[in-house]
Amino acid sequence: MTTPASLRISRLAFAYPDGHQALFGVDLTIARGERVALLGPNGAGKTTLVLHLNGILGGGTGEVRVAGLPVARPHLAEVRRKVGIVFQDPDDQLFMPTVRDDVAFGPAAAGVRGAELEARVRAALDLVGMADCADRPPHHLSFGQRRRVAVATVLVMEPEILVLDEPSSNLDPASRRELADILRALSVTVLMVTHDLPYALELCPRSVILSDGVICADGDTRDLLTDAGLLRRHRLELPYGFDAAAARPR
Question: Could you name the domain of life of the organism this protein comes from (predicted)?
């Protein structure tokens, strides 16, 4: 039995108003429950692609479908509930007086109230190990803790797809490990945009390389990261001394 697709992108092309062509006919399908890393150099089109997933950008050609729904005006509210984006800087998502208020903001705005709201907030904070910090101001937390709360603000909306923009950036080793453990335990589809190739290997069995607006490689993460010529052509580098062939995902 074929696993249903969480995301299906067909022939997606997009140019900005200044004429810069960012995407040239991208095709990508991600099955429900997959964890996929989106790799590529700066300027490859990764952000442009991600912003098409919930309709922030549009007006190009081709089609994007999330859980079978076309990303188009009649479905935008539902699509945006199904695609949760965690930004690179958690402070872009945290603005309420307490952690609980931040996590409750999205579902409350969607009309969730009372015991259901409290239960969803508690469940989301439990998933990221931050329930004990529910009453703390977000700006009193460490950077790693704030990132986990930012993930909770998305998970509380019960998304189909969790999109993470550089999730390991600026994290100390312990926070990096804690976030990896959280992401491995989730049952949602994950699309992780990252330059951190070891993190991609650890968390994502499959990777896609986007370069110059096209997908130039799609396959097993270890296979891609052990292809030195492929990495060199697309300006991707492993840390000095890191052996992707010998590394074992935890």
Answer: Bacteria
248 phi and psi angles, rounded to 5 deg: -120, 120
**Separation of alpha carbons 176 and 221, rounded Å:** 19
Alpha helix segments (H runs only) across the chain:
46-52, 76-82, 99-109, 114-127, 143-155, 173-185, 197-203, 221-225, 228-233
Q: By C-alpha distance, which of 35, 107, 34, 29 is closest to 68?
A: 29
Q: How far apart are the first and last CA of the chain?
A: 29
User: What is this structure's pTM?
Assistant: 0.93
For 164, other C-beta atoms within 10 Å of its C-beta total 26
- DSSP lists the bridge partners of residue 214 as 211
**Domains of the chain from N-terminus onward:** 5-233 (3.40.50.300)
Average of per-residue pLDDT values in the chain: 93
Q: Which DSSP helix (H) or strand (E) runs through 62?
A: strand 61-66
The answer, yes or no, to whether residue 74 has pLDDT greater than 80, is yes
Cα dist from 211 to 80, 181, 216, 218, 222, whole Å? 26, 29, 7, 12, 19
